[in-house]
Amino acid sequence: MKKSRIYFLCATLVAMILMLYNPNIFAADKVPGITDKTIKIGGPMLITGPIAKLGTAAADGLAIYWKWVNDQGGVHGRKVECLLEDDGYDPTRAVASAKKLIARDEIFGFLTTSGTPQTLQLMPILGKENVPALSGIIPSFPGLMKQMPMLFTFGMPYGDQMILAIDYAMKDLKMQKPTIGIVYQDDAYGHEMIRGVEIAAKAYGLQIVGKEAYKRGAVDFSSQALNLKRADPGLVIMGTVTRETTAFLQETDKLGWYPVCFSSSAVCDEKIIELLGDKAKNLYTVNYIARFYEKSPGMDQLQAVYKKYRPDIDMIMHYHILGYVNSMIFHEALKSAGPDVTRDKWIKAMEKIQSFDTKGLAGLISFGPDMHSSKCQGRIFKADLGKNLWIPVTEYRDPSVK
To answer: Does this model's pTM top 0.90?
Structure first.
């Protein structure tokens, strides 16, 4: 009896010592990033670098939404901590940021995976570490989603946006067999744009007469503009972001060349119209998010939230809204997963989201077990030089081909 009592006391003492030095040693069911009082989420974000304006806007949208949620009581009584790491629009830095967030900060899941090239670099890490993620500011990568069961994306893929653009050129502008020229960022973003152009060109029997690449961060587009002008396309597709769009069209203006141009949702920023002025007269973009001036219950709430937490922001950009909507989707799954949330429960909750209503900030959003990239429509926008606004010239549409 005494011997068993001694064994019991020794075992208890050993357990207490182990708990003292490693309090999580017996927490086999501990969920990373989850405590009784908090949920820790985050991700890398392009807060500095060549397109910092977009990244900081998206970061504002992601973070401000959770401030509002926390002031409403949080999620099942837990306050949400949103940790965003600057990657400078650099895939290598994005990987380092992700490793820190997983190993040191022990976040529950990724609310953002930064830009297109960064996301592609992060996919193996997320899979290896079994960390769920909702891409914060980029649409999906067709053909890759099935390889990454932990990743969800919201938005119309850039390639599909370009199919929608060429649909509009052919059916609405009624262009007659235009040849196509492409200027594109030489990375995953630009190549995804080309994918869509090639699909649409094949469907309509159109010829691509020129492709001009540039590296991320480029500032001189004189050679790309001159080479495309020599190819003389009737339609130019721009796989560019904000600064590069402005630089390219300033060069075409020097050449006295004003082709019809289409770019993606990454370019739907009023600052571009302000900088370009009359040079933007033939520029169109595609977008799947509402504009700040459009009236809806969702936009009214968003405007009120920004006014409360960031009254210093004068104009709500596309990326402010996109980050906010992304947080809304993540929040919806957290609520549905219940108070005993795990990573697997969150994934299952995401897969059950059907016709999620953002009250006018976007169309209805749906996911599924075999649809981790949300079903999404887009609209064509044209630069209104008088109002300095992007104005929709179509309703929401699906691309004609996939």
So the answer is: no
